[in-house]
């Protein structure tokens, strides 16, 4: 799908399916989503020579049977080079799957609890935690995804996981599977700090 916004900006969107037959597969897919969301690059349209493309990624997710659907939207400023953007996106996803596999390989299961014992509530912007990854389909009505909500213990309990646990780990991924919410800690991605991240650099330019 491609949608025009103005003379210089346009959007394209794709759905990418990942297997989700067990919690580890679902964990991997959710980590890929987290890595891609908010990514921003400048890409040279080398084949046409029509100038650079500024691209920004926004992601979402859905569950469909035993499949996890990654919703990918790319916002582009520059020439309408859909094929180039699709190629870049495919290559980027391949790289992110590799990175996600490395991160998931260092996972640590922190806890699990029945979903029925939790309630998902919106949180104000100043209480959002980018280091907590929660599936979009668990968001309550009116919540801003992906960071504007989080799980809490039922009956007025504290946030689950609490902030002290988030502070102790690079990422905590809340994986809903088989009626439970499983908390996995993984290392922070390499680009989490300004020292590690080179804004606008994409090592897969074609």
As a percent range, the share of strand residues is: 35-45%
Overall pLDDT confidence: 88
Largest sheet: spatial strand order: 1-2-5-4-3
H/E series, N to C? EEHEEEHEEEEHEE
Helical residues, percent: 10-25%
User: What's the number of helices?
Assistant: 3
| Biggest sheet details | 5 strands, antiparallel
Q: Look up the CATH topology of the largest domain.
A: TATA-Binding Protein
Number of domains: 2
Write down the CATH class of the largest domain.
Answer: Alpha Beta
Q: What is the gyration radius calculated from CA atoms?
A: 18 Å
How is this structure best described in words?
- This protein has 206 residues and is α+β, with helices and mostly antiparallel strands.
- It folds into two domains: 2-106, TATA-Binding Protein (2-Layer Sandwich), CATH 3.30.310; 108-186, no CATH class.
- The chain is 20% helix and 37% strand.
- The protein has three helices and eleven strands.
- The strands form three sheets. A five-stranded antiparallel sheet has the order 1-2-5-4-3.
- A hairpin with a 2-residue loop joins strand 10 (171-177) and strand 11.
- Helix 1 (23-36) packs across helix 2.
- The longest helix is centred in the middle third of the chain and has 23 residues, at 82-104.
- 26% of the residues are buried.
